Structures are given as C-alpha cells and as structure tokens.
Amino acid sequence: MDDHGLSGNPAWTPVARLAREQLARLGAVGSEHATAAGEVLFAAGDASYDFFVVLDGVADVVERLGEATERVVASYGPGEFLGEIGMLTGERASLAGVVRSAGRVLRVPLRRIQVLMTQDTDLSDFVLRIFLERRANLLRKGAGLTLVGSRYDPRCRALLQSFSRSRTAVNWLDLEEQPEAEALLRELRVPVADLPIVLVPGRPMLRNPQPADIAAEFGELPAEADDDRDVCDLLVVGGGPGGLAAAVYGASEGLQTALLDAAAFGGQAGTSSRIENYLGFPAGLSGAELAARGTVQAAKFGVRLHRNARAAAFAGRAGRHCVTCDDGRVFRAQDVIIATGAEYRRLTVPGAEAWEGNSVHYAATVVEAQSCRGRPVAVIGGGNSAGQAAMFLSRTSDPVHLLVRGEDLDHSMSRYLVEAIAADPRIRVWVRTEAVALVADSAVTGIDVVDRGAGRRSHVKADAVFVFIGATPCTGWLGGRLATDRDGFLLTGQDLDGAWEADRAPLPFETSEPGVFCVGDARSGSVKRVATAVGEGSAAVRLVFERRRLDGARHLLV
Predict the structure, then answer these.
(1) Residue 16 is inside which H or E element, if any?
(2) CB 38 within 8 Å of CB 48
(3) Is the Cβ–Cβ distance between 44 and 93 less than 8 Å?
(4) Using the 8-state DSSP alphabet, how is residue 558 labeled?
(5) For residue range 240-256, what is the model confidence (pLDDT) as tens digits?
(6) Residues whose CB falls within 8 Å of the CB of residue 460, separated by 6 or more in sequence, listed in order
(7) Helix (H) / strand (E) containing 257
(8) Cystine design at 245: which of 131, 183, 491, 534 (Cβ 3.0–4.6 Å)?
(9) Residue of 84, 80, 106 whose CA lies nearest to 93
(10) CA 143/CA 120 separation, integer angstroms
(11) Contacts of 552 (CB under 8 A, 6+ apart)
C-alpha cells in the first residue's frame, strides 16, 4: 500500500488526503478514538475490518507483524485513511494496521462506510480510486499471501491460476529459481513432499492445498443444510456483470437475494484492464472498478454475498431449486438466475499445458503483466478481450505480438480497439496466423506459428503467451439437468422448442426448468458484451416477477 501515504513511492503520488468536507461527512457516521503507540487497529487474518482515518499521529500498514521479516508497507498521517478494496468486497485482511505514534483516529464501522459510499458520489469515487490503486500496487509487489512451489508442479500452477482469477495478491517463490524458497522451507521444516505450501497472514500454513482449501481461508464456514439463512427468494449464481446486475435489481425490488461466485466478483470482465465502451464512463473504467462498484451497491441493498462459493450441483422441481457448492454449502431458492459465464478455451498446442499458470495465461492483469515486464509477449485471439489485453500489456512489454486466425480485426473487434492497436508501435498484428507449438526449455522462449494462407511456418519470440480464444460455457455443474445447445450453452425462451414441458410458454431468458433463468455469456445466442450482460441481468429480475404472476407463486418461501 505504499503507493499512497507518508512512505509513498513517488511514482504513485495521487493525493490520498481527505478534504475537510469529506472528513465532516465521515465524522457524522463514525466516532473518534484516542490511540496509543503500538495499538493494533486490525490484524492480518481478520474476517473484516473498519475504515480508519488518521486525525493525529501516524499509523502503519504492516506485513508479517511481529515476525522477523516484518515490513512496513505504508505509513499514513493526518487526513489519510487505511485500507484497500478487499475491505469493501468481503475479503480477509492480509496486512495489519498499527499505530506508530500516539494520536487520534476516526473509526467508521464497515457497514456504515458501505452505505455512505452508495449515497455520496464524491466520496465513493475518491475512496474507490485510492483503494483500487492500492490493490494494484499490492499485486505488483506480491504483498499478502506467499506461495512456495515449483513451476513444473501442476498443483502449483493450479494455485497460481486460482489466485489470478480471484485477483489475490501473492508472492510466489519459485523453487527452481529463487534460493530464498529453499531457505524458507528449511526454516519451516517443510519436506518437498508437502509442496506447494501457502502462507496466509494470520492463519496456519497450508500444505499442498487445493484451490478449494485456499477459498475456504477467504470464504465462509460451511453452513448446515437446514440453515435458514441459505434459503432465499432469488439465488444468483455467478458474480460477473450480469450476476451483479441481477442481484442489485432483485434486492432493490424487495427480494431476499443471495449471490454466489466461485472466485471474486466481477467475473471475466473483472480482469479487464480497461472497458472503454461502457455507457456513462467516457474515460472508460477498469473491470476491477466495475466489480467493486457493483459489489458495494449489492451490499447496500442487502444482498447476501458469498465469494469463493463454487457451484457443484443443481437440483430443482417446481418452486424449489437447490444449488450445492463444492465445500458443502447448500442454497435454496424459489427462483434462480444463472450467470456463470464462459471460460476461454485452453491452448492445446504441444508444450502449452505444462506452462499454464506460469508463462501461459488466460487473463492479463497486473500480476501477469508484472511477471513479463520489459519482455516480448504474444496474445492469441481476435476479439475485444484479446485487443484489451494487447493494449494493456503494451504499457510494460515490447513487442506485443497479436496473433489472429482471421483475415483482419475488423470483423471481430470493436472499432475503437482496432484503431488504438493500429496506432500503438509496440503491437504487431499477425493475421491468418495459427499457433502450432510452444517453444521452451527451462522457460518459455517463443511460439511457432503457421500462416494459414501460405502455409509458411515461422517463430515468434515471446517469454509469455496470453490466450483469449473461443469460449466454453461454465455449465458443467448443472449435470445436464437443463437443456443446452451442442456447445453446452443454455437454451432459453423460444429457443427451447421441444425441451419445454410446462403448460405455459417459456419467458425470455427462462431455461427448460421453470423459474430458472440464464443471462450473459452462459446463455446460447448471447452477445458477449458487458453492457448486454448487465441489461439481461436486470431484465431477468422483472421476468422473475412475471413468472410468479403466471404460476401463482407466493412472494416468499415458506
């Protein structure tokens, strides 16, 4: 967090000090407290923490508090506030807040700051901007979790991919390259058989964990099957733009709403560096900002937010639908909106699988960009996601090779991106090009490609490959209980044909199971755009009410 504060890096100099008017608004919902040197305001591992503003004195944000390797990440003085975006999105604290010199702080309870930020646009914009920049800086520095493992271990690569999807800051110590990794294992007396290990601040060390084990550290304890809190009017599965929109509109219309996501809210869009064509944001906004704003808004309306809740099974009958997560949690609802989206297809060329999560990536976030800073990279794909990734990576990598199977970009990419790519001297576009092999020895060195027109084979030098090709729907957890097209995307509305058995016509976005709707990328025939998903998510809520009117459903479960 040392991008904003007394110890700030000059490269990160936006003013983080609150204006007098902002302090007054916070003071109306918070309370002042005297502080003593050494007092801990929040600790690593805390399930949540409040919003603190330093009024007098100095407070530090500290990594590994009390350990031999303790490090001050940032220091804050009068008028500055502590925290980062995880505070607002329900993540555990990974760092500690400690008073360095006695003074006073303003403490605003988490729930009150969440409500205030939905009411005060000026304050919300200011705090969100600072919080998001702090998270980006943490990702660059790897402050937070520590992962020790080998780049050649598929279990280690699976964890790296999981951290990337959930936008979790992690310091990876590669056993193959970094001597400190072996030194740490000796200090902790961890045998190689227990690798990889994950050190979670304030929590026990995890030996050879599965991604679900990591999720449990940041999620919730499993609920009993008959726990009434997991019974709701509307269950939204998938926290991308469509799911967030459905949750916000459902709760704002009075439905008891729960939102589940397998990783972090925001979905694939949450990893986008910049969304330029979203209505109302002429300067564009990052996917992380869109996700953060949607999450705060959902919390305002009382949505029950469940991160790290991966849907694993579905069962349903008229008026009663049940979703079971892979950690055993069970959620029941009268209506369900599925917004689980789609994943990019894996790169299947020889040599690619062994490097997934290391030098072969399916997202282009700050974490991946940092790992190949100043080096050549390749981006495979011709859609908007590939174009956005190329533009983002060109800030730190040179050159960026954009490999496209088609004849040009015009038929698959938005015009603003085509023009931006053409104007960027760091990006080289290869059309009619197909990847055929990944080249690597102790590290990835490039990718072999074929010109699909001339049949000519050539080599592209790249230290990392970013893949944005095709889409595979995230619908396998449904176990074939709902009708799909041949590619696995859910059929809805008039497309159901003979798959619909109820005695009324299916509503738009309604699947083959009455009361279960699908929006966004998981739906057959959907337009793969953020704005479209948001529109579908909000429209589906209105259709939930229409379904209840037609079927004579009661407003609440009994």
Answers:
(1) none
(2) no
(3) yes
(4) -
(5) 999 999 999 999 999 99
(6) 378, 401, 403, 430, 446, 447, 448, 449
(7) strand 257-260
(8) 534
(9) 84
(10) 31
(11) none
